Amino acid sequence: MSSLLREEMQRVLFRPSKQSLVEYIEIEEPTHGRHFLCVSVAKNKLVQLCIVRCQISQTALKSGSKGSHTERSSIQECYRKAEVWSLQDLTLVDGRDADVDDSCFLLHFDKVRTVTAVSCSAKYSFVRALFALSEQHCQKPLNLRNFDWAYITPTSFYSNRGDCVVLTQICFYAFNLVCLSMCPVPLDA
Predict the structure, then answer these.
(1) Which pTM does this prediction carry?
(2) The Exocyst complex component Sec3 PIP2-binding N-terminal domain covers which part of the protein (predicted)?
């Protein structure tokens, strides 16, 4: 489902403006409809962040032969960019608290934009993409505060391949704990 959504947004919003959608997450907004925080790269290597609003509209379609005038309704999703920023203008990404499983974070541009992702995993996935794009296209590290760096920066095991590697790392730690708990403890009496 998410790959279909990515393709649809790429086709409708980003391809006509010669941009490539790199990463997106669903976010919670007070207004009606689905909202996404997207990051895209243009042909001239300009990196943009945008809030995409997905409105569902019903349209009436005429169908049938010449003599019949039947109408059927069709639900269509209409995507539009509600807010757009340049990655160059992003001065700070604040995770608010690295020790709490919080899906909310702050993007500091001229004004501070509060973003609430649908999950903490989505928040970290998006910030990893921003971090990599900032180093690749802006030639400067992204200013991050209140994030767990083990889930942001690449290490020898985690090389910026996404949440699957993070999950594998967690499973590896859990497996080690299970093995250690099963080891016999010598009792010296």
Answers:
(1) 0.72
(2) 30-137
Name the average pLDDT for the chain: 84
CB 111 within 8 A of CB 92: no
Tell me which of 31 and 169 has the higher pLDDT: 31
CB distance 9 to 38 below 8 Å: yes
CB 91 within 8 A of CB 108: yes
Give the separation between CA 130 and CA 136, rounded to whole angstroms. Answer: 10
The tens digit of pLDDT for each residue in 1-22 reads 478 889 999 999 999 999 999 9
Give, in order, the Cα–Cα distances in Å from 107 to each of 54, 78, 126, 164.
21, 26, 12, 25
- DSSP label at residue 44: T
User: Distance between alpha carbon 38 and the CA centroid of its chain, in Å?
Assistant: 7
pLDDT tens digits, 39-71 = 999 999 999 999 999 987 655 555 555 555 555
- In the chain the beta strands, taken as DSSP E runs, fall at 19-28, 34-42, 47-63, 70-86, 92-94, 104-108, 112-117, 144-145
| Cβ–Cβ under 8 Å, residues 68 and 47 | no
Q: 7 CB contacts (<8 Å, ≥6 apart)?
A: none
Please check whether residue 94 is in contact with residue 82, taking contact to mean a CB–CB distance below 8 angstroms. no
